[in-house]
Amino acid sequence: MPKALERKLAxxxxxxxxxxxxxxxxxxxxxxxxxxxxxxxxxSGRRRR
Length: 49
Prior knowledge:
With 49 residues, this protein is an all-alpha fold. The chain has one domain (3-44). The protein has helices spanning 3-15, 20-33, 39-44. Helix 1 (3-15) crosses helix 2. The radius of gyration is 12 Å and the shape is elongated. The relative contact order is 0.16.
C-alpha cells in the first residue's frame, strides 16, 4: 500500500469516529477506489477496473 495515502486515510477515518472493522474497511475501500491493487491480485494477473 502507498503508506502516505494509507496514513492520510487512517487519520481521516479516526476523525470520522470509525473504529475496528469499519475503520479498516474505509481505508481499504478508499484505496481501491483510488486505483490501488493488492499484491495478491497483481501477482495472479486479476485486475479490477
